[in-house]
Amino acid sequence: MKFEDQRDIMVQTQICRRGINDQRVLDAFLVVPRHEFVPHDMRTYSYSDHPLSIGEGQTISQPYIVALMLDLLQVRPTDHVLEIGAGSGYQTALLAKLAAEVYAVERIDSLMQHAKRLLRQLGYGNIHFRTGDGTRGWEKAFPPRDAFDRIIVAAGSPQVPQPLINQLAEGGRLVIPSGTRLAQELLLVTRRDGEILIEKHGGCAFVPLIGEEGWPDA
Ligand code: SAH
Q: Would you say the CB of residue 211 lies under 6 angstroms from ligand 1?
């Protein structure tokens, strides 16, 4: 079956049927070629209902969990989005379709370089890349921003890193899995009238967020 048809089926059976119906999110999933972000020897499984290994002990997340996080994030076309844990770059591509600008951070340089090359090749022009510890957020320097409308973390953290809360704009939304190294809960953190609110959105299991405000490197 053609990748495009597999993608349609993925959106219908794995995402829509489980209750996600934000049309902008669904449209992004319909156009981003997930198979390009999956290692060659696993292309056949690109559109299946689970995470896949991308090397360096990391994974490309299950499509549904990415959709759930993007549904909670409610990205608007004018938003500047900070993404921590770019990995394969798949979620980065989805964000680039939904937002004005994406600031992608990944701690493993080989993954970052691979994602950067691929995303450029695929024609995405609104993504800024950085290798480093994303638990510190996007520290100043180019481009000069001190707050983000949306922040998404694709690795599990022991707590919500304070630098990310500090870098969340007024009216902003931050989605992060938080809990133990093996199991977490999806948190939606919002800043409204200067106040920080935290909502829980169910269980999940991500690779650990490793860094100063995350887990120690084991
Ligand atoms: N969205 C990615 C998920 C990759 S898995 C995808 O679907 O491909 C999570 C990623 O977070 C891994 O690549 C891991 O290296 C990265 N990571 C872990 N701790 C990090 C940190 N402190 N800063 C930036 N990236 C981190």
A: yes
For 47, the enclosing helix (H) or strand (E) is: none
* Domain spans, the chain: 56-204
- Provide the residue type at 185 as one letter: E
Protein residue with its CA nearest to atom 11 in ligand 1: 85
Q: Which fold has domain 56-204?
A: Rossmann fold (3.40.50)
Query: Any residues with CB less than 8 A from the CB of 140 and at least 6 apart, and which?
Result: 146
The pTM is what?
Answer: 0.97
Q: How far apart are CA 166 and CA 100, in angstroms?
A: 21
The DSSP code for 22 is -
Question: pLDDT tens-digit profile of 41-100?
Answer: 999 999 999 999 999 999 999 999 999 999 999 999 999 999 999 999 999 999 999 999
